[in-house]
Specification:
Keywords: 4Fe-4S, DNA damage, DNA repair, Hydrolase, Iron, Iron-sulfur, Metal-binding. With about 250 residues, the chain is α/β, with parallel strands linked by helices. It has helices spanning about 10-20, 65-75, 120-130, 155-170, 180-190, 190-195, 220-225, 230-245, and strands spanning about 100-105, 135-140, 175-180, 200-205, 210-220. It has a 5-stranded mixed sheet, with helices on both faces.
């Protein structure tokens, strides 16, 4: 007689499935016809997503006229618009003045105008020593709102410098008095200690004006209040400003 023909089908099916699994078959084919010899299509490459990637900054051209620039400078689109330093302080005096004065920031004790406190009183005496008053100069600031720390952050200094150069080009003064380190770096690309002592020349932007402004860098009045011994050096700077010759 032949072999025992009594087959337990459950065991047979389990044995076949185990064999297929050992052979690497882990899925069943459906009833849809397919070309098993076709080259498989690679899946699309996943998109690379960088979390918290900042959007590229939108560079908006600076206003091309002085009136438009002054309106923009204290408006909601200026770099300082979001600072918590109070109301922006606009420039003072006439843009037609021969002498423009650029400081770094408003002072802590400034009220409705730039240099309104102790540093401003010393500033007034400095102007008087060279035959000027606030009414005969154009006084502006590198930033219109005082930073909370009292200093301009490095990440905005370059942008404010670009704005200041554009500003001076629009005003096109005959002479420029630069007071303080931040203002000196913005216009002359060097600290006051290196910039002072010589008559500097600020080349205007050709698209606006082609003439050159003579500039003198000196110590800010707030520093002179802290270091009175530097007043003699500041006086020499002012003499150079009105004399027009460098040392």
């Amino acid at each position: 007689m032949g072999a025992d023909q009594n087959i337990v089908w459950q065991d047979a099916v389990a044995s076949a499935l185990e064999w297929w699994r050992d052979a690497g078959i882990d899925s069943l084919a459906d009833e849809t016809p397919r070309d098993w010899f076709a080259t498989p299509t690679p899946p699309p490459a996943p998109k690379r997503v960088v979390a918290n990637q900042p959007a590229a900054p939108i560079v908006v051209p600076l206003p091309a006229t002085l009136d438009a620039f002054l309106a923009w400078r204290t408006g909601p689109d200026a770099p300082e618009a979001g600072w918590n330093g109070g109301t922006p302080l606009a420039a003072q005096g006439s843009p037609a003045a021969e002498l423009m004065v650029l400081v770094d920031t408003p002072e802590r004790d400034d009220g409705a105008r730039l240099l309104d406190g102790a540093a401003g009183r010393l500033f007034d005496r400095m102007l008087a020593a060279v035959g000027h008053a606030r009414e005969t100069v154009y006084l502006a600031s590198l930033c219109t709102v005082r930073p909370l720390a009292g200093r301009i952050a490095p990440e905005v200094e370059e942008r404010l410098g670009e704005i200041a150069r554009h500003y001076v080009a629009l005003v096109a003064p005959k002479r420029l008095l630069i007071l303080g380190n931040a203002a000196s770096r913005a216009l002359l690309a060097m600290d006051v200690t290196h910039a002072r002592g010589s008559l500097r020349r600020v080349n205007q932007l050709p698209a606006i004006h082609e003439h050159t402004t003579e500039a003198v860098a000196s110590f800010h009045p707030r520093l002179l209040l802290e270091r009175p011994a530097q007043k003699a050096e500041a006086w020499r700077d002012l003499q150079m400003l009105i004399g027009g010759t460098g040392s």
